[in-house]
Amino acid sequence: MPQKTRVLICDDSALMRQVLTKLLGEDPELEVVGAASDPEKAWQMIQRLAPDVMTLDVEMPKMDGVTFLEKLMAHRPMPVVMVSSLTERGADVTMRALEAGAVDFVSKPAMDVAARTAVLGREIREKVKAAATARIRGRRPARPSAPRPRPSGLGFSATHKVIAIGASTGGTEALMEVLTDMPADSPGIVIVQHMPVGFTASFAERLNGACAINVREARNGDRVQQGRALLAPGDQHMKLQRSGATMSVTLHSTPPVNRFRPSVDVLFHSVAQQMGNNAVGVILTGMGRDGASGLVAMRNAGAHTIAQDEATCVVYGMPRAAFEAGGAERVLPLDKISRGILHALPGSRPTALTR
């Protein structure tokens, strides 16, 4: 019988500890080995019980989840899934936790909504199991408050090109690395990162503060243009629409695809249909298969396609699926993907990059 994934819960709410213990315990592949009410007790349990994965409340008394996470990653790196509240502050703190080394996060349900609790159960079980296989790199260096110097422009001649990027687990940091290496005059970029409502706006703001390009959460009808990246909002699919030389995005609340909304496949299929060979498609770290068929469609339409390699993925699921389906023209480590994108664009001079 395969060994179970051992999980430690850290949450200051007795009710939430009870709910999470029940939800995780419903999976025969998971075993909850302990439940701590604060970081001090969690640290003692980690040393005694050696769990494989921990779920960690974002906001707790004595020491908040991010501070504890930073200390944990400095002294005993391990996979952590954050449990966040659906508030503006919760979203901002969660983004900080992902930067500090958390693998993924789930949002807390309203306790009086049984259906939401059932959804949380499926989501947290999947994310805890994915986290158990994740590559943990320990504490990450603090980000500078200002963007690193970037070339102001590489003289692109083909502004009608579009770059489409899809990511999931581990994607927030992967996208940060790719986008901070894109020049201010890069072609328009459209992005799907699996993330719920309320979190995509906070994530877009953090990207915008670090990048030479403008990054924002997409609104229906936003134009895709040079120097701009549009991030699909949580719980809405995003498609590319072309009218002559004008490109824009449309947002839709149609059913989830591959159980996701937004879905990478929805975006990639629209880019394949609307742009043909005037596009570059990139699939980054994440669990599942979302984006695989869309990347195949983009490649078949003549687009250049790139998948992140296994060694640099937090979870090698989506890139693996895309590669095995024949969608990836090139497989590159994360720190070479921005250069790979620029090489695929006519009129660029990738040697001007700092890497």
UniProtKB/TrEMBL annotation:
Keywords: Chemotaxis, Cytoplasm, Hydrolase, Phosphoprotein. It is an enzyme of class 3 (hydrolase). Residues 149-348 form the CheB-type methylesterase domain. The active site is at 168, 194, 290. Phosphorylated by CheA. Phosphorylation of the N-terminal regulatory domain activates the methylesterase activity. Its EC number is 3.1.1.61, 3.5.1.44. It is found in: Cytoplasm. Residues 6-123 form the Response regulatory domain. The modification 4-aspartylphosphate is found at residue 57. Coiled coil: none annotated. The keyword Cytoplasm applies. The keyword Phosphoprotein applies. Residues 135-154 are annotated as: Disordered. Involved in chemotaxis. Part of a chemotaxis signal transduction system that modulates chemotaxis in response to various stimuli. Catalyzes the demethylation of specific methylglutamate residues introduced into the chemoreceptors (methyl-accepting chemotaxis proteins or MCP) by CheR. Also mediates the irreversible deamidation of specific glutamine residues to glutamic acid. HAMAP family: CheB_chemtxs (MF_00099). PANTHER family: PROTEIN-GLUTAMATE METHYLESTERASE/PROTEIN-GLUTAMINE GLUTAMINASE (PTHR42872), PROTEIN-GLUTAMATE METHYLESTERASE_PROTEIN-GLUTAMINE GLUTAMINASE (PTHR42872:SF6). This is Protein-glutamate methylesterase/protein-glutamine glutaminase. It comes from Botrimarina mediterranea. The gene is cheB_2.
